[in-house]
Design a protein that fits this description.
This protein is α/β, with parallel strands linked by helices. The chain is 28% helix and 26% strand.
Amino acid sequence: MRLIDPGGQGGSTDRSTAARLTSLDGKKIGLLSNGKANAEALIRATAAHFEREHGCAVVGFIDKMNASRPAANEHLDALSQDADFLITAVGD
């Protein structure tokens, strides 16, 4: 996958996608909210489905509090250390 900055400020960055999970059973979930109205409610309701259906557990929640800015690297690093997968949503 090749990502290109639409702002024209720099070059492109090569990235790869994460390996697909073979099962969701018992996995740990990280939650990332963009801070908009209803985003947290949507994320938590979605996570509850995974908890009920697959025995998953929420291990981290971060509200980045600003939908127009990317999540801070230290927040993403913390979630990636603890979680097997991430749920994020845009509210309004």
